[in-house]
């Protein structure tokens, strides 16, 4: 554990420097706001255009869509950042082999690198949600937020995403080519299957089955329930309104444990295989 | 008088009258264009899995946006509007990451210095990259458009296909001109410019109205966003494809948008040429052409 924490600290510090040293911290925070803010605004405009023409038959899904889009930016960034960190350290910086030959924990190091990239988003996402509440009239109020639920869901969700990202990093470590696509491909696919933008009931039945098997679907549902008082209103037909909040939390706990059980041995196997096959200093001109 | 010997037979031969003149600048330009377009076109066929990822990722993202309208029971023309925007995102991403960023990637991999040594212009190299990139990107956009239209049953009401094709190509010429202009920045700047490119991606999706009619943002924002040629290109294409629905969302008339796009195409081309020369000169002075990992 001590090795893990030390490696995490080093990875985080290096990642933070690598990510942010091209500008000053204030500008970096503003820059980090661009993606979640733009995605939230796109969804807002899409729905407002429709409302303006009176063409809306369904309920107002703006809070559902806005919260899902903004929160999902953390998922996309974390999934992509760890896989990309492997690629960057291995091929661009040529230093992954040095991590591997030290008694340091590569697992902790990659966690640090991943968290460094999304750390500013831990500020950007609340700021964007606040912007949504104040300017776009998204019904998120400090008085109605379920704070204990929010805390539990954030912690569990981050664990799930980080373990998932670790799996992708392990896969990236083992494959020779196309590694740059791994994070983007998975986060792109999950965008469709997690109900980040729309209720999963819109999907065909077979796709709904996949969506219900993805833990992040429950994480986004949990975030909506914590932030938005009307999240379980049946009018939105989310497909998860029947699920009690305690069951939802148990699903998240189970998913976090399952992801840990998959990712930890997989990472060990990936490191071993990378050493065996000489992949730690490979250069594919990413 | 010097004697010229054949290198194979050592027999004296007549000097070649063409020797020393070499190919014309025009020939070099087009050879460079073909030389840079070739690997991008052939590369698409050689690595089919990349083609899958290139198509699969934007297709999934576009489907997500269309499903938002599906979720609230919007008319099919609105889904078509998003689909057209989603298909065109492929071109914006290609311009950003394979045009604007290309000289940065080449600098990182040590190719940039070879470009500088070659007796050709940087415009020729970038034109080749643009044409090669256009090939793969057009396949991607076409698959998104055709696949999405079939899945969601979207019908188009285009009456003037000639104008539609004209606007499409005019938008792309102007867009890739902008890409050339942006690429000149990477001759001078390093990773900071990379971050700026990343910052242009989603915000341009928003201000250029890739997923909704740009007029909804108001005249001031829409006018500012018109610097990105796809803003006007998309608006004109949507007007031609969905004339009934776009009556209330028309930003400018198709003719006006075509004229502005033609102006942008010419302007970006000229400014890009000037900027590339200036930036190359500055980079040589500052010794940044071979710099890596900035």
What secondary-structure arrangement, pairings included, does this model have?
The complex is a heterodimer of chains A (286) and B (294).
Chain A: H1 2-20, H2 25-52, H3 62-92, H4 96-101, H5 106-119, H6 121-135, H7 147-174, H8 179-193, H9 205-213, H10 215-227, H11 245-277
Chain B: H1 25-46, H2 48-71, H3 76-100, H4 102-109, H5 112-117, H6 122-152, H7 161-185, H8 191-207, H9 219-225, H10 229-241, H11 243-246, H12 254-286
Helix pairs in contact in B: 1-6, 2-3, 2-6, 3-6, 3-7, 3-8, 3-10, 7-10, 7-12, 10-12
Account of the 3D structure:
The complex is a heterodimer of chains A (286) and B (294). With 286 residues, chain A is mostly helical. Chain A is 74% helix and 0% strand. Chain B has 294 residues and is an all-alpha fold. Chain B has 12 helices and no strands. Chain B has helices spanning 25-46, 48-71, 76-100, 102-109, 112-117, 122-152, 161-185, 191-207, 219-225, 229-241, 243-246, 254-286. The mean pLDDT of chain B is 84. Classes of the chains: A mainly alpha (286), B mainly alpha (294). At the A-B interface, helix 2 and helix 8 of A face helix 2 and helix 8 of B. Chain B: It comes from Herpetosiphon gulosus. Chain B: It holds the Pfam family ABC2_membrane.
Supply database-style keywords.
heterodimer; A: mainly alpha; 0% strand; B: 294 residues; 12 helices; 73% helix; ABC-2_transporter (chain B)
* Helical residues, percent of chain B: over 70%
Q: List unreliable stretches of 5+ residues of chain A.
A: none
Largest sheet of chain A: none
Instruction: State the major sheet of chain B.
Output: none
Mean pLDDT over the full residue set of chain B: 84
Integer average pLDDT of chain A? 86
Taking the alpha carbons of the first and last residues of chain A, their distance comes to: 33 Å
According to DSSP, the number of beta strands of chain B is 0
Secondary-structure element order of chain B, N to C: HHHHHHHHHHHH
> Which class of secondary structure composition applies to the elements of chain A?
mainly alpha
Structural class of chain B: mainly alpha
Radius of gyration of chain A: 20 Å
**Largest interface, C-beta within 8 A:** A-B, 42 and 43 residues
The total of helices of chain B stands at: 12
Q: What share of residues are in beta strands of chain B?
A: under 5%
Overall 3D shape of chain A:
globular
Strand content of chain A: under 5%
Task: Work out the radius of gyration of chain B.
Answer: 23 Å
- Poorly predicted runs of chain B are none
